[in-house]
Amino acid sequence: MTAVLLMATFVSCKKDRSSSDDGNKVVIDATVVNGDDCDGRITTVKARMYDYDAKKEYIIASAKYENNKFKLTLPGTIPDKCLYGIIDGMDDFEGTLSDREAKISKIYLLAYLDDNLIGVFRCKNDANDDHAWYVYVDRNVTINGRHSADYYDGLEYNEIDCSFTKGWNILYSEGAGAGGKSYLTTTRKPSGANYEWYGYFWLKKNSPGDKGTSYHPFSEMWQVASNPL
């Protein structure tokens, strides 16, 4: 299993906490910069988490998509079946972890046309392609250290400097994807960085005179049946 810390207008990447009893719901109020690329065919945005043991995905929230915008409320608590150890998959991790029982998971934001999955949304800094991710952590925990992964284009070193609070956090990856180099995963937003939402769509725009709508095939990871949380 790939470690979550490797994955590295929502005009800025920020959390808006609700006034609910648990106080930990988060609202993602997003404008998709390149939303026109889907030719106006997205109807719904869904937030997905994955149960690696049961090989099931769970939809934890959904929202209407209109005019290249969506407003999605993430639940205040996430069940344990959707979480896993914070350093699972980091066999060579060197560093400090304040609580080895801590669990974590990230969400994927998916684009739907009715019941058809047609793409994903990602929050990134367009200046350098660094990404930001929403992750849920089941307790306050800090982690500082390093681990590596051997990819087809070279060995990558991930420097980790994170201080999580229980609930939803935003995780930033700086310099990710540079083969043979080191990059940073942190909960501290990089100074001066501007993160915005972008869509990556499988839906193809129709050519003039084409009456149908065609789709790119989905990879296996997106074909797992959706289950309500």
What does this protein structure show overall?
By secondary structure, the protein is an all-beta fold. Helix content is 0%, strand content 49%. The chain has strands spanning 16-17, 26-31, 44-51, 56-66, 69-74, 84-85, 94-97, 103-106, 108-113, 116-125, 130-137, 141-151, 154-164, 167-174, 182-186, 195-201, 226-228. The chain is globular. The two termini are 22 Å apart. The model is unreliable at 1-13, 15-21 and 204-229 (pLDDT under 50).
Features:
229 residues, disordered C terminus, disordered N terminus, 17-stranded mixed β-sheet, 49% strand, mainly beta, single chain
What's the order of the H and E elements? EEEEEEEEEEEEEEEEE
Task: State the separation between the terminal residues, measured CA to CA.
Answer: 22 Å
> What count of domains describes the coordinates?
1
Instruction: Provide the gyration radius in Å.
Output: 18 Å
Find the structural class using helix and strand composition. mainly beta
Shape descriptor reads: globular
